[in-house]
Amino acid sequence: MSAANLTSLSLRACLEGLRRAEFSSVELTRAYLEQTGRLEPALHAYITPAPEMALRMAAEADRRWAEWRRDPITPHPALLGLPLAVKDVLALEGLPCTAGSRILEDFRPPYTATTVARLVAGGAVITGKTNTDEFAMGSSTENSAYGPTRNPWDVARVPGGSSGGSAAAVAARMAPAALGSDTGGSVRQPASFCGVTGLKPSYGRCSRWGLFAYGSSLDSVGVLARSAEDAALVFAVMAGHDPLDATSADLPVPSADLDGADLRGLRVGVPEEYFIAGIQPDVERAVRAAVAHMQSLGCEVRPVRLPHTEYALPVYYLIAPAEASANLARFDGVRYGPREAASRVWEVFYRTRGQRFGAEVKRRIMLGTYALSAGYYDAYYAQAQKVRTLIKADFTAAFEQVDVIAAPVAPSTAFRFGEHGDDPLSMYLEDVFTLPANLAGVPGLAFPVGFDGQGLPVGMQLMAAPFREDLLLRAAHAYQQSTDWHQRVPEMARAG
Q1: Cβ of 77: how many Cβ atoms within 10 Å?
Q2: Which of 87, 129, 163, 200 is catalytic?
């Protein structure tokens, strides 16, 4: 089978081909590495490609497949031989983990994040570490200290952020799936911009151990893939309780099997608060058309209210920077990472943090420190936490009436590089539809539902009650069985 054909297969089709020995994991991995080698100069989806490690892991997977064929009664790992990429905020022993920052340049963690370890234990082949906004702070992957990632649908536009490297890699067929992280939309928004499927699990569903923390009460490890079916396969392996993470929920994980999924009887809520003035008309049309299509497949559509949605943006930008200010205090150039020379210890701190943190990270550290400072804590941070409770209560009330909520992922399609560079607030507004799910701790799933007039993907998100990822995955899978938006491929990924 040709490399182009191999990179067009779904994860389930890849597993079936490996099971039948139609191709090897080495052949499959090499096809993705060749695609990466061809497109990486134009896209810069990876910070650290790992072709040698990937081929070693693929060869080991082939050995295990050969063993299984001799004794097929013994189950094989769920992801055996499948190439996957990992966002560079998740630790993997043996590879650098930079979090997109110069303050962690060449840092090699002596441990592996739980979610990554579970993929490796599940037989996955890790192809490398993908690009990210520094410490996951951004909506465009322009804030990476190692250069921006470009959108494979239009290289003059951003792929979204902060998991832009993972989204671009999946869209460009440089990886069939990739891990990301989502603190305020960083899986769902790049999924929307790049025309792929992105799952942000419930808070506590996937271990945060080994993830470089941004906002500890908001962070989730998620997955980007071509379809809900592929996302479900990876999610089923990476999710579950972890005693190393005190916030990890000890609850059963939904099955990856979506066979027979349909929309009959599903109650879908549509909040008008998400269709605000200024939303790109093509986005609203595509999302409303997708909801109408779901209704034609048997679901019931009804309006719901999320009245405190308008406060989500200011609440998030008080809570997240406050938590970031505390979390990033550990990066001082003393214990690990590079250190700027100085004669006095406080000068070491000042120079290292001043020279090696980027502008956006500094901005959020200062915002967070201000919000936590004496005299302002009660006025800002404490009030934000109270309003967060109201936002969560909105979702609780809504899910008493509906099973899932459908809404746009972002107010626009992918914007041009530098478009928001001089206006941080306009950049923050790109996450206005994704922030509430993180504040409430509910799961969200973004998937493509059309294109705008410029040929750029449009995404829709579904949200459900905590730990009901199964509803999201089954609903999106049913939708994708009767549409082909998720099968569209950027021209550059088809060439060659």
Answers
A1: 17
A2: 87
CB 377 within 8 A of CB 368: no
The rounded distance, in Å, linking the Cα atoms of 229 and 255 is 11
Return the CATH architecture of domain 3-308+392-494: Alpha-Beta Complex (3.90)
C-alpha closest to that of 399 among 459, 448, 472: 472
- Full DSSP string of 181-227: EESSSTTHHHHHHHT-EEEEPPTTTS--TTBPPSSTTT-EEEEEESS
To the query of whether residue 139 is one of the catalytic residues in this protein, the response is no
Give the C-alpha separation, 311 to 188, whole Å.
Answer: 20
Token couple for 372: 């936590």
The answer to whether 162 is a known catalytic residue is yes
Respond yes or no: is residue 186 known to be catalytic.
yes
Give, in order, the Cα–Cα distances in Å from 260 to each of 109, 187, 444, 477, 481. Answer: 42, 27, 21, 10, 10
* Side chain identity, residue 305: R
Catalytic site residue from 101, 186, 202, 325: 186
Cα separation, 216 vs 22, whole angstroms: 44
> How far, in Å, are 293, 350, 449, 460 from residue 289 at the CA level?
6, 53, 8, 10
Q: From first to last of the 496 residues of the chain, give the pLDDT tens digit.
A: 787 799 999 999 999 999 999 999 999 999 999 999 999 999 999 999 999 999 999 999 999 999 999 999 889 999 999 999 999 999 999 999 999 999 999 899 999 999 999 999 999 999 999 999 999 999 999 999 999 999 999 999 999 999 999 999 999 999 999 999 999 999 999 999 999 999 999 999 999 999 999 999 999 999 999 999 999 999 999 999 999 999 999 999 988 889 999 999 999 999 999 999 999 999 999 999 999 999 999 999 999 999 999 999 999 999 999 999 999 998 987 777 787 887 787 787 777 788 889 999 999 999 999 999 988 999 999 999 999 999 999 999 999 999 999 999 999 999 999 998 778 888 888 999 999 999 999 999 999 999 999 999 999 999 999 999 999 999 999 999 999 999 999 999 996 5
* Strand order across the 177-182 sheet: 46-49, 125-130, 83-87, 177-182, 220-225, 197-200, 444-451, 457-464, 404-408, 267-271, 300-304
- Which entry of 25, 162, 248, 325 is annotated as an active-site residue? 162
